[in-house]
# Entry
Amino acid sequence: MSDVFFSALEFAQQQVRRLIEKYPDYFPIYTKQGKWYHDGELWTDWTGGFLAGMMWRFYQLTRDRWWWDRAVHYSQLLEHRQHDRNVHDLGFIFLNTYLPWYRWTGDERLNQVLIQAGRTLALRYQPRGKYLCSFIGPQSLFIDIMMNVPLVFYAARQTNDEQLYRIAEQHCRTTRDRLVRADGSTAHEGLFNPDTGEFLGQSTHQGLAAGSVWARGLAWSLYGFSQVYELTGNEEFLEVARRNADYWIRHLPEDGVPYWDFCADLSQPPPWGAQKESSAGAIAAAGLLHLAGQDADAERCRRYRQTALHTLRTLCTPEYLANHTPDWEGILKHGVYHTAKNLGVDESVMWGEYFFVEALTRVVTEGEQNE
Ligand code: GLY
# Structure
């Protein structure tokens, strides 16, 4: 099986090399009919760290100087975002770029960029509702932010800033209490009165409905809480990651790749019905492998690894991997960005590419395939 994973990683390198040679210094978000370059709406600018992050993964895998130079260059193009107050995605941007770069070099200047980005993200904190608000506005909490809050923990740890740490911890508790349901499923968004902190209810932008289970949101939560458990050692966060993972595994289709929303009516056609979402599968596979490295329960870890490997195997078949689809510029087909806005539906999406590469890199470098 590792041959299949190695081949997929070869193909991923080929596709990224082609992309950056064809469109230098361009950070695409999703394809249109398989092509990265188009004038489609961005909704929000949050994915630069995934393209550069893949280059760091390719360097980790190959130790090829060519990838090192590209990774450094594309990371530098993102440096100004450390002060960006318009997005809640600074973790996505910096944890996949400046963090590996800092770990390879120990250059303190890079660490300062990470710390600044964590402080900038913490400025989104709403003291009454006790959460980091989404780019939509002060009233809005997104499940996605669970993947970004590790950057605030990081900055707090590096600077011994107790207040920063409490902000990150509170954000996780509010997310758990308002967005994660008792059965382990998640809502995409929570709405609050920012003046009083009163919780007004669950909502969605990218899922089917306020009360539904948007597949990518659940994957963000699972992986985010797993990382926060690693960073804090706090069992209350492990419990949430486990609950998310249990829901995920219980409801996953037989091939290991979810539909875009776990509540979608599968008797209906795409995009609102039976539309697969490969990026959610890739994120969850990476998250389950991470959680398997954190949880002390051997039986659970075995289940997490098996599910992750099953999903990755399916994603490596020609149905998902674009290696037999002529002229398709992405790596993974059948991802979805935003159904309601009709952006990147049944296309390649940059975060799907990144987490697929991350999960496969983990598998081939840590020998997970032996499980
Ligand atoms: N807004 C982040 C996502 O599409 O998952």
Observations:
- The first strand starts at residue 125 and ends at 126.
- The chain has a mean pLDDT of 97.
- The domain at 2-370 is CATH 1.50.10.10 (Glycosyltransferase).
